[in-house]
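Handout, section 4.2: multi-component inputs.
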Amino acid sequence: MFKENILSGKRILVTGGGTGLGKEMASEYARLGAQVYICGRRKSVLDDTVQEIVGAGGEAKAYSCDIRVADAVDEMIDQIWLDGGPLTGLVNNAAGNFISPTKDLSIRGFDAISNIVLRGSFQVTHACGKRWIDEKISASVISILTTWVWNGGPYTVPSAMSKAGVNIMTKSLAAEWGKYGIRLNAISPGPFPTKGAWERLNPNQSTAETDSYSAIPMGRNGEMSELRNLATFLMADGCEYLTGQNIAIDGAAHLATGGNFFPSLDSLSDETWDEIREMIRSSNDADKANRSV
Ligand code: HXC
Ligand code: NAP
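Output:
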């Protein structure tokens, strides 16, 4: 879809770029000529992704960084600037999520999600933005949201609230930072199955594929290539006047049927929720065992 090397000269950080959608976008940016940085809490996972990107002829480096920790974010951004100059792009992709009846959430459960999505996305955007403004650098920020920012996310309330906050950050800073040549846009994907998301959002396959397809007018999940193309379009030169927008890529699911998990989760019994909680905890524990920060 794009000319080879369309991103040559770009330096882009993808948070959570070691897995899932972040890995897809980071790999595509590198394939199209960008110097790519990825961060996350599991160094071994990041290193594997860097190895794949470099093996395919791209340029990528990994940083272990927990984006919830402001000082760690600032240190990572300093190191990236020292490594080869300013970034020109940022993708706020890192996130945490799990399905739960809201009445059963503890405040720590709320914080676990909002500190990554809302606070973490702000911290990385702020750390980059203040440097771009000081150094008079134009840049592009993309935040990965969900369509729940428009109509709510029952059973995923901390995520929906936090993504809605990042949506408003996108619009607010598009206006405040437009004069500096910094643009901010967002992508709201519908279902693009990944291990990280499906272990926490569909651990017992309660959203049977055929049921979820019937909720999507196009009758299928998203293809990673479709997401990669949109993420490249928003990062490449040529549409600088496009800012402050949130683009859904969901086969019209949110327009037709809401695009959230409400119908499949609303009738689950307490026993089924107990089982789901245990399944999610064991996925969390397995991932945590690999964390280096
Ligand atoms: C209720 C739960 C819970 C669950 C955890 N908690 N899982 N509460 N139901 N299933 C509670 C814990 O009991 C604890 O509270 C608190 O949350 C913190 O738990 P930790 O395990 O200590 O959290 P932490 O190590 O900070 O890990 C964060 C995480 C984890 C969000 C819980 O899942 C994670 O690291 N996720 C990253 C990857 C991810 O989530 N990817 C999916 C993105 S998909 P107490 O009170 O007991 O101490 C997405 C949208 C997709 O965002 C949209 C699709 C359409
Ligand atoms: P994923 O593979 O679980 O990706 C989440 C990434 O964020 C992981 O690499 C994780 O790495 C990183 N991360 C989490 N907490 C972090 C922290 N505190 N500091 C640094 N990195 C952190 O899930 P995904 O499906 O690809 O999701 C990617 C993005 O797409 C998310 O924003 C999600 O909300 C959004 N999204 C996904 C879908 C979908 O269908 N998949 C739909 C809509 C929106 P570590 O655990 O190693 O830190």
